[in-house]
Specification:
By secondary structure, the chain is α+β, with helices and mostly antiparallel strands. The chain has six helices and 20 strands. It has two domains: about 50 residues, no CATH class; about 260 residues, no CATH class.
């Protein structure tokens, strides 16, 4: 009986020592000064890490988010995000307003107008609709009317106007990437093609303006209203990082448009349409019903329906990948 009693007393003393040690650990007593890390604290950190790992992922909107134009100036600033990442920026240089697009997040789509090129087996017709509308970030004008002889037009393997060697060409491949260059002089590559829009010669090549931008304005770069050298003009370029740059101005010569693109980083560029009635670009806010349009170019006349209703001319849309 005495031995049993001594054993019970030793057990009680051992229990008290364990409780004391636990209390000291809770007060920082085993790890040094209060607030220090103790072995017991290290063990109890497991559940906290598990809770951190189980934190729910952030959910982004299922459509591009437009942040507004802000103050236009020479510095690029974000205007569109896709899944939390910047997909488009805006800047204004030499009086030229530019939208720059990250092709990893968005892609270019060529639309056929109801009159130009007219009805046909086109996948993308005279208005933006359906799932494309829900992923719409921006849209803007394409090139000259096809009966001017400015170049060819094809989409989805169907040809409206045959392509011409040497013409400035906006080539979109089936993987959704777009390149710009002179047809059969660097483009196309061997990739399957989704669409090609040609217009005149390259306005910018290897970061240099075409030699004719000052000396051959109407003959080389299109007839203008009233034969004016300075009119609304637009272009689409690509920079060294494969980002697309839409550039437009309500009043410029070809030289000014080209310089704006070069200052914005464009390596190659094709002039698009000119004159006030046909130069327009929009960003789109999403909500209920039709997206709300936001004009991009200061002073632009605009397009009836803002590319969300049938339009007679062909145009480009920028949509989320």
């Amino acid at each position: 009986m005495r031995a049993d009693g001594r054993a019970r007393r030793k057990g009680r003393r051992a229990g008290l020592i364990v409780l004391a040690a636990t209390a000291l650990a809770g007060c920082g007593g085993l790890g040094g000064p209060a607030g220090g890390t103790s072995p017991l604290r290290t063990v109890t950190g497991g559940p906290a890490r598990a809770a951190h790992r189980s934190r729910p992922k952030r959910h982004y909107p299922s459509f591009p988010v437009v942040n507004g134009l802000g103050t236009l100036g020479p510095r690029w600033h974000p205007v569109v995000t896709v899944r939390g990442q910047t997909a488009a920026w805006i800047a204004q240089r030499d009086g030229v307003t530019m939208l720059r697009f990250d092709q990893r997040l968005v892609r270019l789509v060529l639309h056929a107008g109801s009159a130009d090129p007219g009805s046909g087996p086109w996948q993308y017709g005279d208005t933006i609709r359906g799932s494309e509308r829900r992923r719409l970030a921006a849209a803007f004008n394409a090139g000259f009317k096809l009966d001017t002889g400015a170049g060819g037009w094809q989409s989805g393997g169907h040809v409206a106007v045959p392509l011409t060697a040497g013409r400035a060409s906006i080539v979109t491949y089936r993987d959704g990437t777009t390149d710009i260059g002179a047809w059969q002089h660097g483009i196309p590559t061997s990739q399957p093609i989704a669409s090609v829009r040609q217009n005149l010669s390259l306005l910018v090549d290897n970061g240099v303006a075409a030699a004719t931008v000052n000396s051959c304005i109407e003959t080389c770069w299109g007839a203008t209203i009233g034969n004016a050298a300075t009119v609304a003009r637009s272009a689409l370029g690509i920079d060294a990082n494969r980002r697309l740059i839409y550039a437009a101005t309500p009043s410029a010569t070809p030289a000014t448009l080209a310089q704006g693109l070069i200052d914005g980083g464009a390596q190659r560029a094709a002039e698009l349409d000119i004159n006030p009635d046909w130069v327009a670009a929009y960003l789109y806010h999403h909500g209920r019903g039709l997206p709300e349009f936001l004009p991009v170019i200061p002073g632009q006349y605009g397009v009836a329906g803002h590319f969300l209703a049938p339009y007679t001319r062909d145009f480009f849309a920028i949509v989320e990948r």
